[in-house]
Design brief:
Elements (H helix, E strand, L loop, with lengths): L3 E6 L11 H12 L3 E6 L6 H8 L3 E7 L4 H16 L5 E4 L1 H5 L1 H5 L6 E3 L4 H12 L10 E5 L2 E4 L21 H8 L3 E4 L2 E2 L10 H5 L4 E2 L2 H15 L3 E4 L8 H14 L4 E6 L1 H4 L4 H9 L2 E9 L3 H6 L7 H13 L3 E8 L6 H17 L3 E7 L9 H6 L8 H4 L14 H33 L3 H5 L4
Parallel strand pairs: 1-2, 1-3, 3-4, 4-5, 8-11, 11-12, 12-13, 13-14, 14-15
Antiparallel strand pairs: 5-6, 6-7, 9-10
């Protein structure tokens, strides 16, 4: 019986985050139904083509998941290679980018079928139909080609994540990731979705502002068990906004403490939610092993925050977030977006002024600034087009829309050079504080300075 599904994750910039959670999540229901699953992760596989040459013979299909940006280039290249190995093998694309732009993605000659949105049930239903030689016209949540046209099947209802099986963590080659990064680290998502509607964010488009979360009991039971089973040193929570339910976040921290299993963990949040926690509750996070939190502060200009539709974001709460987390011994990163539509140079000056002041007072804060990236599906595309931004017209063109790339016609020439000079001066000043905090924490924990500064969230 042809029951083997091969899943491929293209390589990406930076150190591997750990086993690709998207593919582990797809693999789980397939394996429960008796399918054999092979995962090829380009982040750790030294020779992707050779690995696929080994896995493709006898396969039922190839599934590829990727994000917008350079991962697309690798996905397109590899699927072309797979076509030479087996021209008849169904190639299935999925992930955020494919779901946001299904028709355009499926227009590429290397793609046969596309899975939209939450994929666990759709990929299983699709695999069963392919194995049995049935038409895929009745499979919900997919798009496919028929007679040269794109067919969009009906959407599949979104499932409560608690009704889905746990990802197939046993397929993760943790030794290989540790060899590459020095860490036994696991990406883990205890929830998906964020209730906010920031105009630059694809999350609200993908999850429609719905917070879909594991129960506290499931997280508290599952995570320490995974840490023990795979000898993990860190768990990176990939939740869009982990503490949407503040009570749940605190209960999870208490549960980790009670488990008596020691590990570090990191997550993303918004400053308003952390500020709803008392000092004692934030300190509890530190006691439970939280080593780092990332925050989408984006700007310290009230005008720009309004343009971004970040009504929940307040400047005073940025200071308060830094204070609470420093007191708890937790590092934080404030993410910044520069060049947002409507931002002026005085807005940037104000952002750099406030962030420099925060870094001067609180030494645990570091910053991750990036030029605004126009990702697919975000609500402000009509405005961007009016301002001269060209929307990519093909899958391949989206490969150039990577974090840090500049596609903004209003930020070129001398304006761009001036911003870069301002940014260089800003980072030079604020990075001193981060090093002071790392040194102080290393003395408290026995870790070396290099170990602290090399940690990634």
């Amino acid at each position: 019986m042809n029951d083997k599904v091969v899943l491929f994750y293209p390589p990406y910039e930076g150190p591997p985050l750990g086993p690709p959670l998207s593919l582990l999540s797809l693999a789980s229901p397939l394996m429960e139904a008796g399918f054999r699953v092979a995962i090829v992760d380009g982040a750790i596989e030294p020779d992707v083509r050779r690995a696929l040459q080994k896995e493709i013979p006898g396969a039922l299909c190839l599934g590829v998941s990727f994000l917008t940006g350079s991962m697309i280039r690798s996905a397109v290249e590899i699927t072309g290679f797979v076509r030479t190995l087996n021209p008849e093998l169904p190639i299935i694309f999925g992930g955020w980018h494919s779901s946001l732009l299904p028709a355009q993605t499926l227009a590429h000659e290397g793609v046969d079928i596309l899975v939209r949105g939450q994929g666990e049930e759709s990929i299983l239903d699709l695999a069963i139909h392919l194995r049995e030689g049935k038409s895929v016209e009745t499979v919900r949540g997919i798009s496919f080609k028929s007679g040269g046209k794109v067919v969009q099947n009906a959407d599949r209802p979104v499932q409560n994540v608690n009704n889905l099986p746990s990802p197939a963590f046993s397929l993760g080659n943790f030794d290989a990731y540790e060899k590459r990064t020095g860490l036994r680290k696991l990406p883990y998502a205890s929830s998906v979705g964020c209730p906010y509607a920031c105009h630059y964010c694809t999350d609200q488009v993908f999850y429609e502002r719905r917070f879909n979360a594991y129960t506290t009991a499931r997280v508290v039971s599952e995570v320490p068990e995974l840490v023990s089973r795979f000898r993990l040193s860190e768990v990176a929570f990939l939740d869009s906004n982990f503490p949407v339910n503040v009570k749940r976040a605190v209960e999870i921290a208490r549960g980790f403490i009670d488990s008596r299993v020691n590990f570090g963990w990191t997550f993303q949040a918004s400053t308003d939610l952390l500020c709803r926690m008392s000092d004692e509750e934030v300190s509890l996070l530190g006691e439970a092993g939280v080593t780092h939190m990332g925050f989408g502060t984006e700007s310290a200009s009230e005008e720009v925050l309004t343009l971004m539709n970040k009504k929940h974001q307040r400047i005073d709460e940025m200071y308060e977030t830094a204070r609470k987390s420093e007191q708890a011994g937790i590092r934080v990163t404030f993410n910044l977006i520069l060049g947002y539509p409507g931002e002026t140079e005085p807005d940037r000056v104000e952002t750099f002024r406030v962030m420099t002041d925060i870094a001067r007072i609180y030494s645990n804060v570091s910053f991750s600034p990036n030029i605004f990236t126009p990702y697919p599906g975000i609500p402000i595309w009509p405005q961007l087009k009016d301002m001269g931004v060209r929307e990519p017209q093909s899958l391949e063109e989206w490969a150039d829309v990577d974090l840090g790339s500049n596609h903004l016609p209003w930020l070129q020439g001398e304006d761009l050079h001036r911003l870069r000079r301002m940014l260089e001066s800003f980072l030079l000043n604020v990075n001193r504080g981060a090093k002071r905090f790392a040194t102080r924490r290393s003395l408290l924990t026995g870790q070396t300075l290099s170990q602290r500064m090399n940690e990634v969230c």
